[in-house]
C-alpha cells in the first residue's frame, strides 16, 4: 500500500466534517415521525391480583418511543421507575405519582413517558408493590 501526502489532507478534512456535523446536529434523536406509542394496560382487578398488574409486563421499544399506561382498574395506581420502594433511584426516570395531575386515580386515566435513552427500565406500582413491569429501550 502506498502512502500519499494527500491522504493526510483527506483524513483531516474528513475529521473536521464529522466534528462539524456532530456540533451542528447534536446527539442523535429519533425523528418524531418514526416514533411509536406503545400501550400498557393496568387491567381490571390489578389491585387484587398484582402479579398480573401490567399487561404486557415487559415491552421492547426504541429510543424516542412513548409508553402510555392506562388504568382500567377501580383502584389508584402508580407507574414508578425502579425495582421497588426501596430502590434508591425510585422515580428518577419517570413517576406518575400519587396525586393529580399524573396519578392514575380512576378508570381511564393515563400516564405516558417518552424514552430518550437506551437501557432497561424496571417499574412498579407504589400502592401495590407486587405490580411490576419492565421497559427495554434499544
Keywords:
138 residues, alpha/beta, Immunoglobulin-like, four-stranded mixed beta sheet, 1 helix
CATH topology: Immunoglobulin-like
The CATH architecture is Sandwich
Q: Which shape, going by the Cα principal axes?
A: elongated
Strand order across the biggest sheet? Answer: 2-7-6-4
Note the total helix count: 1
Helix content: 10-25%
Let me know the largest β-sheet. 4 strands, mixed
How many strand units?
A: 7
CATH domain class: Mainly Beta
Number of domains: 1
> Roughly how many Å apart are the termini?
40 Å
CATH superfamily, called what? Cupredoxins -  blue copper proteins
Question: What features would you describe in this structure?
Answer:
The chain has 138 residues and is an alpha/beta fold. It has a single domain, classed as Cupredoxins -  blue copper proteins (Immunoglobulin-like), CATH 2.60.40. It contains 1 helix and 7 strands. It has one helix at residues 5-25; strands spanning 37-42, 58-61, 66-71, 80-81, 110-114, 119-124, 132-137. A 4-stranded mixed sheet has the order 2-7-6-4, with no helix packed on it. Strands 1-3-5 form a 3-stranded mixed sheet, with no helix packed on it. A hairpin with a 7-residue loop joins β6 (119-124) and β7 (132-137). The model is unreliable at 11-15 and 17-30 (pLDDT under 50).
Amino acid at each position: 500500500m502506498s502512502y500519499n501526502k494527500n491522504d493526510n489532507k483527506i483524513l483531516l478534512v474528513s475529521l473536521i466534517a464529522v466534528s462539524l456535523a456532530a456540533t451542528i446536529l447534536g446527539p442523535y434523536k429519533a425523528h418524531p415521525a418514526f416514533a411509536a406509542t406503545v400501550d400498557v394496560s393496568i387491567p381490571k382487578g390489578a389491585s387484587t391480583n398484582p402479579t398480573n398488574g401490567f399487561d404486557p409486563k415487559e415491552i421492547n421499544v426504541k429510543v424516542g418511543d412513548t409508553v402510555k399506561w392506562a388504568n382500567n382498574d377501580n383502584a389508584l395506581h402508580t407507574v414508578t421507575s425502579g425495582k421497588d420502594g426501596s430502590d434508591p433511584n425510585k422515580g428518577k426516570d419517570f413517576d406518575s405519582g400519587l396525586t393529580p395531575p399524573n396519578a392514575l386515580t380512576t378508570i381511564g386515566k393515563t400516564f405516558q413517558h417518552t424514552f430518550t435513552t437506551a437501557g432497561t427500565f424496571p417499574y412498579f406500582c407504589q400502592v401495590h408493590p407486587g405490580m411490576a413491569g419492565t421497559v427495554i429501550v434499544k
